[in-house]
Amino acid sequence: MPVTGTGTPMRRTADGPGPEAMVAVRDLVRTYGGGPAAVRALRGVTFEVPRGELVAVRGRSGAGKTTLLNLVGGLDRPDAGRVAVDGVDLAGLGERRLLELRRERVGFVFQTFGLIPTLTAAENVGVPLRLRRAPRHEREARVELLLSLVGLREHAAQRPGELSGGQQQRVAIARALANRPALLLADEPTGQLDTRTRETVLELLRAVVDSEGATVLLTTHDDELLRRADRVFELRDGVVTAGR
């Protein structure tokens, strides 16, 4: 059963999001460990990501950026606060529905890439399409297009261990876009790319927003990526302290 319409809709209220928000975060708290050694990664974060925008979160290492993406993507649960994606309150979803949400609406680009080492680049990109049982011809055409867009068509048959870090990052980005996600979450997507490839990825992320109407929420230290974002938030010590 698809996730559409499931969960608890977060309708507009005095303190709730409007219908234009793809992501709505309210008073989000996440703490790791306990006692004197406890680490408060997020300390009451509140913000919204409008639909169809490229939104960047910047901040020093340890500021809570990756934790925030994991909570928005339903990979982790908050200690307090609320997260809504596309109008659905994640707290109202069980693990099966969270899995459906991630499969159908959300694409992920992790710093560690998350590629399957035994699969080729093309097979890795095609995994999300296989999970939703896309016809073979559709799957192959989409994979070829995405590998071409990230400049890796000639490397389609190579496995991750045969690719450089930058090439693996590009495969990860192509895979995240395979199902045309409504929301793309990316953790430092240009962090390991050379100048030329970085420019290609920047243009691709911008095109995903402008041409396909997707929403992109990413973390970055890349000044050029920050400049091209529609909106920028800053996380400092687990709190949103600034934005534009």
UniProtKB/TrEMBL annotation:
Residues 23-244 form the ABC transporter domain. InterPro entries: AAA+_ATPase, ABC_transporter-like_ATP-bd, ABC_transporter-like_CS, ABC_transpr_LolD-like, MacB-like_ATP-bd, P-loop_NTPase. Transmembrane segments: none annotated. Keywords: ATP-binding, Nucleotide-binding, Transport. It comes from the Bacteria. CDD domains: ABC_MJ0796_LolCDE_FtsE. One of its GO terms (molecular function) is ATP binding. One of its GO terms (cellular component) is membrane protein complex. Pfam families: ABC_tran. PANTHER family: ABC TRANSPORTER RELATED, IMPORT ATP-BINDING PROTEIN. This is ABC transporter.
